[in-house]
């Protein structure tokens, strides 16, 4: 497969992963089993954003772009594709806090739904 196509596919997977980090807790409201991988994904997002550990998807995309003869990623995925595009460059912390709030709201909603579900009597 062409390296540029691989790079684009990795970029799309990475974007999907970031969307899952932000919104996956809401998916768990309907598919309860999704809470476990969502907690793992959100934990990775938190560690990556606070400690600065590079995501392997960024490295894979960068390597594929370089193999395709492109420049590669000048910065990380978020800095390249989101910062200054989806939100202003000087609002990174606010964007991170917004995503964290969305995740926490989804988890609180999940917990409330589980609590209600467990309180409902089982039909005979």
Automatic annotation (TrEMBL):
The superkingdom of the source organism is Bacteria
What InterPro entries does the record point to?
DUF2784
Q: Pfam family example for this protein?
A: DUF2784
Asked if the record carries the keyword Transmembrane helix, the reply is yes
Q: Where are the transmembrane segments?
A: 6-29, 41-60, 95-112
User: What keywords tag this UniProt record?
Assistant: Membrane, Transmembrane, Transmembrane helix
The molecule here is called DUF2784 domain-containing protein
Q: Which organism is it from?
A: Pseudonocardia xinjiangensis
